């Protein structure tokens, strides 16, 4: 009996099977890993001039960015203007393979559509080793590719715009999609993929016609850029103003200093 108790105590001291009250594991504070800036991770520190102007409220609306064709390099800019309204949907996740010397390397390709149902739509495509990483990257790319979509009427201009302003055509690969205005109450007469994109863009009524290899979902997921067509009702005199980069030159000339993060003491 004495030998057994001695072995147990020795095992406990060595960290063997009989770990009595002493724990010699590698748990050196790994239970709560929020010390790596976990509490302040949601705070946005802009990296571009446009981001600085947006965060300091010098640019009030997202239309000002599109007016001067300023490139959006940060997804937080879209969240700042359209955050609560944005809805994203994963259209498809498909495996893709690459032949290597060691065999085949499989990765996952994700297609994500994002929109606010009020005239803004974006499509993102991302390929990664893991499905979650691919979807997360596709959402970021979809936000960076958000474009304004012009809406119009069929017939009399009564109420809010509900359909495309004119017949428009979008093409990608062999797939060609044509959008035709429709009267109120028609709904979205379309295949499932364009129907999701049109509803996210804010269209209520629309006819569609598609040709080509529509089974290729990546090419079939096309959002028509209807701002390319300038109808006579938009022939108002153009008033040229300064770009936000020129208007707020003094503000952008000041160096941007990040606020130091609060240190978390264990």
Describe the fold and architecture:
The protein has 266 residues and is of the alpha+beta class. The protein has helices at 2-14, 49-55, 63-67, 75-82, 131-144, 192-201, 217-220, 244-247, 249-253; strands at 87-100, 103-115, 120-128, 147-148, 168-172, 175-180, 188-189, 206-211. The strands form 2 sheets. Strands 1-2-3-4 form a 4-stranded antiparallel β-sheet. It has a 4-stranded mixed β-sheet with strand order 5-6-8-7. Residues 9-13, 15-19 and 21-40 have low confidence and may be disordered.
Give a concise summary.
This protein has nine helices and eight strands.
- C-alpha Rg (nearest Å): 27 Å
Summed over residues and divided by their number, the pLDDT gives a mean of: 82
User: How large is the share of residues in beta strands?
Assistant: 15-25%
Distance between the termini: 44 Å
- Quaternary structure annotation: single chain
By secondary-structure content and strand pairing, the structural class works out as: alpha+beta
The helix content, as a percent range, equals: 25-40%
Number of strands: 8
Number of helices: 9
**Low-confidence segments:** 9-13, 15-19, 21-40
Order of helices and strands: HHHHEEEHEEEEHEHHH
Please give the largest β-sheet. 4 strands, antiparallel
């Amino acid at each position: 009996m004495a030998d057994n108790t001695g072995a147990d105590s020795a095992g406990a001291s060595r960290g063997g099977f009989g770990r009595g009250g002493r724990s010699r594991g590698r748990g050196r504070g790994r239970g709560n890993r929020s010390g790596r800036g976990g509490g302040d991770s949601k705070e946005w520190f802009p990296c571009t001039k446009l981001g600085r102007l947006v965060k300091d409220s010098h640019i009030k609306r997202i239309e000002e960015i599109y007016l001067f064709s300023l490139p959006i390099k940060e997804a937080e800019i879209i969240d700042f203007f359209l955050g609560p309204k944005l809805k994203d949907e994963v259209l498809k996740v498909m495996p893709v393979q690459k032949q290597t010397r060691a065999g085949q390397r499989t990765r996952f390709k994700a297609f994500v559509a994002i929109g606010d149902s009020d005239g803004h739509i974006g499509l993102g495509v991302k390929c990664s080793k893991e499905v979650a990483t691919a979807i997360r990257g596709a959402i970021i790319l979809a936000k960076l590719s958000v474009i304004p979509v012009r809406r119009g009427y069929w017939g009399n201009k009564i109420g809010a715009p509900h359909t495309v302003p004119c017949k428009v055509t979008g093409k990608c690969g062999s797939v060609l999609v044509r959008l035709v205005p429709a009267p109120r109450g028609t709904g979205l007469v379309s295949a499932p993929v364009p129907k999701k994109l049109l509803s996210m863009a804010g269209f209520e009524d629309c006819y569609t016609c598609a040709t080509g290899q529509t089974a290729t979902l990546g090419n079939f997921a096309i959002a028509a850029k209807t701002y390319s067509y300038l109808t006579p009702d938009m022939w108002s005199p153009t008033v040229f103003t300064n770009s936000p980069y020129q208007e707020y030159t003094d503000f952008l000339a000041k160096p941007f200093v990040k606020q130091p993060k609060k240190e978390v003491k264990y």
